[in-house]
Amino acid sequence: MSCQLEIQDLGKMAYEPALALQRSVQEKVISRRDTDEALPFHLLFVEHDPPVITVSRRGTSKEHLLATETELEANGVQLCETDRGGDITYHGPGQLVGYPICDLNALSLRLHGYMRFLEDTIIKALRHFGIEGQRDTCATGVWVGDEKICAMGVRISRWVSMHGFALNVSPNMEHFKLIVPCGLSGRQVTSMHQLLGKDCPSMEEVQRIVGAEFLEAINLQAQVQQEHHP
User: Which among 3, 102, 150, 182 is annotated as catalytic?
Assistant: First the structure.
């Protein structure tokens, strides 16, 4: 039986309202688990506008903010604390942010396996556009060569995920100079537009492919679980 995935396109939205929506959906998934109303797989798509720098609770995260308050204001960039894992991250228009809210019990995944699951999904999506993404054994996310194209950070509550991935389609790359991206000094970021130029796909097309790959990944993982636990 195929899994059902509910995808919501939130369009352009500020960070904090999107975070509140994530929490609401996560609570719903948890509360309806093992009921007839259970829908264990959701995916929220959003472009964060106004642009925002999010800082995790990791002790060193704030040290990786390079911009002053005045510089942030001049660039129209907000600063928000977040409860996801990882370090410091930038989100803005032209970046496809995906928030999968999934019952990991339904996929027999734990945190490490789920992160690899997300990386694989983005790598497969990028191949549709002729981009060979890859993992870095020392740093979570998806890379093209030595440059990160997709950042990731999640939070798990009662084995239901929230937060997720940020795929650089055609964001303002100058804004990444306001931070040490993901706290990785000396590492650079890239985007689909930088790699493909005029052949860069639209945000709608990238969203369509990522959504399709995510659904396929869920179905494959659920099938593996069923085979191992008949």
Answer: 182
